[in-house]
Design a protein that fits this description.
single chain; 45% helix; 6 helices; eight-stranded mixed sheet; Endonuclease, Chain A; alpha+beta; 2 domains
Length: 204
Amino acid sequence: MGRKSKSTMRSYTSKVYFQLIGSIIIGIVSVIVNYSSCSTLHQSDFSSDVDVKVEVHFTPDDPCLNIIIHNILSAKKMIFVQAYVITSKKIVDALIQAHLKKVNVQLLVDKNAPTTKGSQINFILEHGIPVIVDKTIGLAHNKIMIIDDSCVITGSFNWTHGAQNRNAENIVIIRGKCHNEKFKKNWYRRAALGEKLKTKNGFH
């Protein structure tokens, strides 16, 4: 092999070497950038509320209905509910009791809630509890109860007759101010776009 060929080979080898090194460096930088982005996302998505406590309960083994009612009756200031519909008379009675004790009780429900079979919405309205119909696109399928400033009840448990005895459901109780505030913001945002029910199947 001549000098020119050897020189060309060395030049080619050096070029490949530096390309390889460059690729490795770019790969390392990419990993660092992605890791930093993920770390930032993680920190923003999860609360720094060190006092947060979580309870989980399951039907039919756990008395989820009684646990929910206990938390309703323990409310001091407010109960904001998000639900597709409410048919459970026991939950409704507890909400009315809280309302009579001057707790600020309000409901945000799906547009089909007033006419759903077994719905307690009109009964709730008759007792002076504000009910807002969620008018955003899609079903309002949340199952959320925001109580005072540090308690949120959510999970698959519907506010219905069958949730305790007929279905396999769960409730998650989150106790922490930061999480409570996030749920409140979502409630207020959707309620602001809704319509307040006035009378039976009617609107303001």
